[in-house]
Design goal:
The protein is an all-alpha fold. It has 12 helices and 2 strands, in the order H-E-E-H-H-H-H-H-H-H-H-H-H-H. Strand 1 and strand 2 form a beta hairpin. The chain is globular, with a radius of gyration of 19 Å. Keywords: Signal.
């Protein structure tokens, strides 16, 4: 069981998410995906949220490709989105908790810091506000419409992932040809992803990047698939569709099928349980 202190810290981090959720009607989004404030009176807490939002930088333009209806079950995608909307506060809280727990993992933290997007408090704040805005788009807008902001942001995030991957590979090549992944994490990914090469999981940068992406993907469903009732969630079918939605998002963001942790609810549960036992629990106890 995760320490109570982690829940408290995660909950405080989630307050920012709650502000963005509860004040949605107070924001408009322009064509460059910059948050702006409607001109009406705001309480101090609303003004603080608005001031933070206005500091967000414009997202770089990138090619957008909508989901192909022939490759995905559109009904399940939409049900997964509806599940998020029905349980938005609970899921947002779970994300806040998992962010804090994730920073206890040295490999995941190193991957994040290597992008230079979260190496200061100010950068991290902007990064996570931007991330949550992207997540809101993906869970509320039409992923099959090329004109949708969700599709535009999906393309932008994929481009960001590609740049981050290139940075990781370049740094690894400058230091060593060995994959910068702990033996515990290699064994975990080998256990869950039998297609990885070698006897200890990822042996090169490509496999390392896929593994990090897969673990990041799993974190967005981790808490609710393993402890749904703790978050007031009792909708089994909705949970399955939510995992399916993340399978599709992961695929679109570049996660190969053999690494995709959301191929089914059972697969997601198994991976999250193994991840917690192998990496998260020891890191939190250290």
């Amino acid at each position: 069981m995760i320490k109570p202190s982690i829940f408290l810290v995660g909950a405080s981090l989630s307050q920012l998410f709650f502000i963005l959720i509860s004040q949605t009607s107070g924001y408009i989004v322009d064509s460059d995906v910059n948050i702006k404030v409607r001109p009406f009176h705001r309480s101090p807490i609303k003004q603080a949220a608005a001031a933070t939002a206005l500091q967000l930088p414009s997202q770089q333009k990138s090619k957008s490709v909508a989901l192909d209806p022939s490759q995905y079950n559109a009904a399940r995608i939409k049900r997964g989105q509806q599940f998020f909307q029905d349980n938005m506060v609970a899921i947002a809280n779970s994300w806040g908790i998992i962010i804090v727990a994730g920073f206890a993992d040295t490999e995941m933290a190193s991957a994040l810091l290597s992008t230079k997007a979260t190496d200061t408090a100010e950068k991290a704040q902007k990064r996570y506000i931007r991330t949550f805005q992207d997540l809101l788009y993906w869970h509320t807008q039409d992923l099959f419409d090329p004109r949708s902001p969700a599709v535009r942001q999906l393309g932008a995030v994929k481009s960001m992932h590609n740049r981050a991957a290139a940075s990781i590979v370049a740094k690894a090549n400058n230091k060593s040809s060995k994959c910068p992944f702990s033996s515990a994490a290699r064994n975990l990914v080998k256990l869950t992803c039998p297609h990885t090469s070698g006897t200890k999981g990822p042996s090169n940068q490509a496999e390392f990047i896929q593994s990090v992406m897969a673990r990041t993907q799993a974190s967005f469903v981790a808490m609710v698939v393993t402890n749904p009732k703790s978050f007031g969630i009792y909708d089994q079918r909705g949970l399955e569709d939510f995992v399916y939605l993340w399978w599709a998002l992961g695929k679109e963001l570049g996660i190969e099928d053999e690494y995709n942790m959301c191929s089914s609810l059972a697969t997601a549960k198994k991976f999250v349980a193994d991840e917690y036992t192998t990496n998260t629990a020891p890191a939190l106890a250290a």
